[in-house]
């Protein structure tokens, strides 16, 4: 592929996207972060209005800020019951924040996926361009229209499917609301529940249709547009581009291994999987394996699970879903590159080899950097919370901090019991976990110049 072909991602026509994208559609990290922060501020102000909440609260501003931040970061942690504390107008505001933020994040993360592909290899740029249907006359703006159409389409299909399931249980207007809100929350992996008097999915443990539908919507959201379209177009593993192959392999591996471990660890637990039939145990284990990396929906009482399972959930939450998706975490692609980079280093290779292709070792180094920075931020945040919330259990604080950072929403109830200062720390953790990784990725991409100048090498002792 020659350099002129690379211009498929350098379309210069004026569009509304030019307001936040610089020349050649280079995303400005500061502007993108500012737009999401403005969305948090608007949501906070709106939720503090009397029309948005039931009764009064001494911490209404903190409650509103926490809820708006959780919705915009697609986390799902709450300090007030969503279905009882907030009025219908307040719940609509929360759902709107989820939809707007989720769609915007999907567009930006898809763009970042494209830019990283262009950054490292012209051939991978062409491959991804063919997958996404981009050419010189069909640039980035058209791609964003496709991403938005894809997101809305999946949420509409999910809403229709859930409407059919809920129709016999609710009045028509409630059925429309429950189906729509749950489909939006599932696809955007936000973890917010809008069911009245339901604090988790435990009442749906035996509802196979509902669990499978929710899993499918959540799963598609956690794959993202690029991978889903590649799978639909290729219909064969061998025809997938390298990025999609990595996502498919590691997604399948984590779902299966996670599901098996959940089944083993909770099989006889009388407060979780114990009372269920064998088929329901398997289904709920798979449901938890998928949701623990993305949506944060739980058909099990988290506080009733074993410590071993909480440890497993911590790892799955930290990994998250695919790059270019609505899921959080350090991203599945990052985890895959870390594994492959370490294998390459152990074998003494300077390139990551997979399926007859090579991935620059530099990309693996960036993946390791993202993981290390993320671990440091989680540990720092946990330490701050331990200082502010003296007396709270370290295990619970660490679990909820990882959940907040990974935008999953699993909780042991910490958010509701911490002080206002502690809640503000969790707000920063949620926003950093969701947008900090994107900010870091955009900064790396925009600052990379591909310079060949190097200093004289000198080795140091390790090990």
Q: Could you describe the 3D structure shown?
A:
With 463 residues, the chain is mainly alpha-helical. It has one domain (12-445). It is built from 17 helices and 2 strands. The chain has helices spanning 29-48, 60-72, 82-85, 88-120, 122-132, 140-166, 172-187, 208-223, 225-234, 242-266, 278-291, 307-319, 332-346, 361-388, 394-405, 414-417, 420-447, and strands at 351-354, 357-360. It has a two-stranded antiparallel sheet with strand order 1-2. Strand 1 (351-354) and strand 2 form a beta hairpin. The chain is globular. It starts with 28 loop residues before the first helix and ends in a 16-residue tail after the last helix.
Descriptive labels:
two-stranded antiparallel ribbon, disordered N terminus, mainly alpha, 62% helix, globular, single chain, 463 residues
- Fraction of helical residues: 55-70%
Helix/strand-derived category reads: mainly alpha
Low-confidence regions: 1-25, 122-126
The major beta sheet can be summarized as: 2 strands, antiparallel
What is the arithmetic mean of pLDDT?
Answer: 83
How many strands appear in the DSSP assignment? 2
Helix tally equals 17
| Total number of distinct structural domains | 1
Strand content: under 5%
How would you sum up the global shape? globular
What is the element string, with H for helices and E for strands?
HHHHHHHHHHHHHEEHHHH
Radius of gyration: 22 Å
Describe the strand arrangement of the main beta sheet, using strand numbers: 1-2
> Could you tell me how far the N terminus lies from the C terminus, measured between alpha carbons in angstroms?
42 Å
């Amino acid at each position: 592929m020659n350099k002129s072909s690379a211009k498929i991602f350098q379309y210069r026509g004026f569009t509304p996207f030019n307001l936040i994208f610089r020349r050649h559609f280079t995303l400005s990290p500061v502007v993108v972060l500012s737009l999401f922060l403005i969305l948090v501020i608007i949501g906070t102000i709106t939720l503090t209005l009397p029309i948005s909440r039931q009764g009064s609260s001494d911490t209404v501003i903190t409650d509103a800020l926490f809820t708006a931040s959780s919705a915009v970061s697609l986390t799902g942690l709450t300090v007030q019951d969503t279905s009882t504390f907030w009025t219908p107008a307040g719940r609509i505001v929360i759902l709107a924040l989820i939809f707007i933020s989720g769609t915007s994040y999907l567009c930006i993360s898809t763009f970042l996926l494209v830019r990283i592909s262009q950054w490292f290899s012209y051939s991978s740029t062409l491959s991804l361009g063919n997958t996404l249907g981009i050419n010189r006359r069909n640039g980035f703006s058209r791609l964003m229209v496709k991403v938005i159409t894809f997101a809305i389409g999946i949420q509409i299909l999910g809403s229709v499917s859930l409407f059919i399931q809920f129709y016999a249980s609710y009045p028509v207007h409630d059925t429309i609301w429950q189906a729509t809100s749950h489909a939006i929350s599932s696809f955007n992996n936000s973890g917010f529940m809008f069911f009245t008097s339901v604090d988790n999915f435990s009442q749906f443990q035996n509802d196979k249709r509902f669990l499978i539908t929710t899993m499918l919507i959540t799963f598609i959201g956690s794959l993202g547009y690029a991978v889903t379209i590649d799978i639909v177009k290729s219909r064969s593993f061998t025809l997938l581009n390298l990025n999609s192959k990595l996502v498919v392999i590691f997604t399948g591996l984590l779902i299966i291994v996670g599901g098996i471990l959940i089944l083993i660890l909770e099989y006889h637990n009388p407060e979780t999987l114990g009372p269920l039939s064998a088929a329901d145990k398997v289904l709920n284990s798979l449901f938890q394996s998928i949701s623990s990396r993305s949506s944060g929906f739980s058909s099990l009482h988290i506080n009733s699970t074993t410590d071993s399972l909480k440890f497993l959930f911590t790892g799955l939450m930290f990994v998250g879903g695919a790059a270019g998706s609505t899921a959080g975490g350090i991203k599945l692609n990052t985890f895959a590159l870390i594994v492959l980079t370490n294998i390459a280093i152990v074998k003494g290779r300077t390139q990551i080899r997979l399926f007859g292709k090579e991935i620059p070792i530099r990309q693996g180094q960036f993946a390791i950097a993202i993981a290390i920075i993320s671990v440091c931020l989680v540990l720092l945040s946990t330490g701050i919370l331990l200082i502010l919330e003296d007396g709270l259990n370290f295990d619970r604080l660490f679990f909820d901090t990882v959940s907040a950072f990974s935008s999953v929403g699993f909780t042991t109830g910490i958010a509701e019991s911490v002080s206002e200062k502690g809640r503000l720390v969790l707000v920063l953790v949620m926003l950093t976990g969701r947008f900090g990784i994107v900010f870091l990725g955009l900064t790396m991409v925009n600052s990379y110049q591909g310079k060949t100048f190097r200093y004289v090498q000198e080795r140091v002792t390790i090990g």
